[in-house]
């Protein structure tokens, strides 16, 4: 870990379009900022395969971003993969690459495997989400390679092993605690944060709130996020007479999300699946109580009710509402230095 002039190249399907974009894969942004500080002399380059939709290279906190502009179009996939390999070849000729770090089991890991095998380069793959559970042909490329695979939690590690019989080490994400606002008096009883899609299961979230309002008449509930199910959920809210209870705020900047967390009592998370659950880290550090299923890094504690069914979620929310007047305390579940040190060890193997 003595060599500070190394060159690390990151491969990801998408990335922030600018330093002002705080909502595109926040966990990856926090990690890369911390790595940049840990390796001030290293050259860090990132190839983003699909988005943002631009061909112009740009600097992001001292990291060169090279967009391949695939635009998530199937017709451009093979062209993007060829461009990625050509770009990596040019980069390697100019500034020798020591490590390639790919994100997701997908096109990036496959390109990473192909290039690192050809050039005898160290390769790390971080599994990011449902890629641990949904079988795809890209995983075959990892089976007989020397790649080091990283998962984000014990649940995530178990899913990867079950799906692909691939071993991995666990390195959790961490927070940038300097980004958080001061804790405030609760003005929101129950908060939901996440994309409005099937996995996040907001239909059950709304049903749970409907049941709780029979006991707690004046609840203030806010959902932050956008997605394909927004109209459907809005109709469900109206049909259950919850227009004055639940507010759909839509997509918000990460700064705005953390402001709402600082003003909220309970994070209700009805998602069926999480690889990690970065929102859990944020909520705990914002002094919130958590109610969720056993997903991601879920860990039962006095601050976190881990439930097995919808009825348990309802009862846990009711119990947490009784504690609404207790002093809020920040809980930090993962350590930045430990996460960065673990990745540095992989980069230098």
From TrEMBL:
Domain of life: Bacteria
The name this protein goes by in its record: Glycosyltransferase family 4 protein
Organism: Lacinutrix neustonica
PANTHER family: GLYCOSYLTRANSFERASE (PTHR12526)
Glycosyl transferase family domain: residues covered: 182-298
Pfam families, per the entry: Glycos_transf_1 (PF00534)
GO MF: glycosyltransferase activity
